[in-house]
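Chapter review: from sequence to fold.
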Amino acid sequence: MPSVIGLDIAKHTFDLATLQPNGKYRTKAKLANDKAGFAILRDWLNKHSEPGAWVVMEATGIYHEALAEWLLEHGYRVCVLNPAQIAHYARSQLQRVKTDKVDAKLIAEYGERHQDSLRPWQPEPRAVRRLKALVRRLEDLREIEQMERNRLEVADASVQASIQSVLEHVGQEIEETLKAIDDHIDND
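The token string follows.
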């Protein structure tokens, strides 16, 4: 039975693949990236992989986190790779096709070939994740603010009041987010 399973994760779905001893891949496509999809994955893993198999995936913003945590809670070994590693590996294999199914196979192959160097993933502490989420939100708000300021410079008089209103609201959100960041740091 396979000892490495590759997962390609998107916002709403994930694909999985594992390299079999005969050199062919066993795959499953478009599982929901939620608890229902995780349950299907568990059944698939129980049927098609050995206990203690590695489940290897790329870091995909925050989309991989719930599944990685779920896998850890259920006793699986999880390795979360930097996407640059897989991209470099794909280039080294002269891989040109890029689909979720192909990526899952590529991740499985990478994990199989580099099994000795796979490192177990651990989630960041909740306090760190909360701080990162707040900082990301602050960056998004500042970007929105800048876009609105740019619009205001060239806007027709008929829409300037609307833009000013949005700028005021975004400014309030920025203040609240900055306060939340300060409070979080003070309380942690």
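Two observations follow directly from the output. Residues 126-187 form one domain. The mean pLDDT is 89.
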